[in-house]
Write a structure and sequence with these properties.
The protein is α+β, with helices and mostly antiparallel strands and 209 residues long. 46% of the residues lie in helices and 25% in strands. The chain has an eight-stranded mixed β-sheet, sandwiched between helices. The radius of gyration is 20 Å and the shape is elongated.
């Protein structure tokens, strides 16, 4: 293999990696009904300080679930629930960054508090607030109660007492609120994916023509 061919293969691998990553929010924004939700039975309760802190704050472990779309993106969450109403979804890294607390109501209304973000997203009967990744579980809960109160709901939220109920709430969330939440990230992802595609085409032209 020539040096040019090896370089092009390397550029292609790098570009495909970043294109795939940046298309994640784009695909979820465009196809919320096509996201597959599953219960994962072969993942035990995560063992670590975060689980201990969650339990000390009244959370109990429900199980592990996954979301995937086509063969291009998948993610899993360890799911905890407090008082059968506030869920905590923890990513595989076993820390709260990239995780979130959420409360759901019967008609799809949702209050969400995301860890590791600085922006607030709001829509019809939907508020999603970002908080620092340095937040403790206690301060995260306090912020989430404020997010719940901002919705001004008179009715009690739905009861989440099983992983199946959490999966059902995730499906409804994507249909009703997913595009509101991901509009900004989908636009940014589309721009970045297009940039890497353009760079790959540019590399192809420069190396072979």
């Amino acid at each position: 293999m020539t040096g040019t061919g090896f370089l092009f293969i390397l550029i292609t691998i790098v570009c495909l990696y970043f294109i795939r990553n940046h298309l994640d929010p784009v695909l979820r924004f465009l196809f919320p009904h096509r996201i597959k939700h599953r219960k994962l039975n072969n993942f035990p309760e995560p063992d670590g300080d975060l689980t201990k802190k969650l339990k000390e704050s009244g959370f109990e472990f429900l199980g592990t679930r996954s979301e995937s779309i086509f063969l291009l993106w998948s993610h899993r969450f360890s799911v905890f629930v407090r008082n059968r109403r506030i869920t905590a979804d923890i990513p595989p890294t076993s820390n709260m960054r990239g995780g979130y607390l959420a409360t759901f109501w019967e008609n799809g209304e949702c209050a969400m508090t995301r860890v590791g973000s600085s922006r607030t997203v709001s829509g019809d009967d939907y508020i999603s607030k970002g908080v620092s990744s340095m937040s403790t579980i206690t301060s995260l809960l306090a912020e989430h109660y404020k997010t719940e109160a901002a919705l001004e709901k008179d009715k009690d939220p739905i009861t989440i007492d099983s992983l199946e109920k959490r999966i059902d709430s995730a499906k409804k969330w994507y249909i009703k609120n997913g595009r509101t939440e991901m509009a900004r990230s989908a636009l940014l992802g589309a721009i970045l994916a297009a940039s890497f595609i353009a760079f790959w085409v540019y590399a192809l032209v420069m190396l072979y023509y």
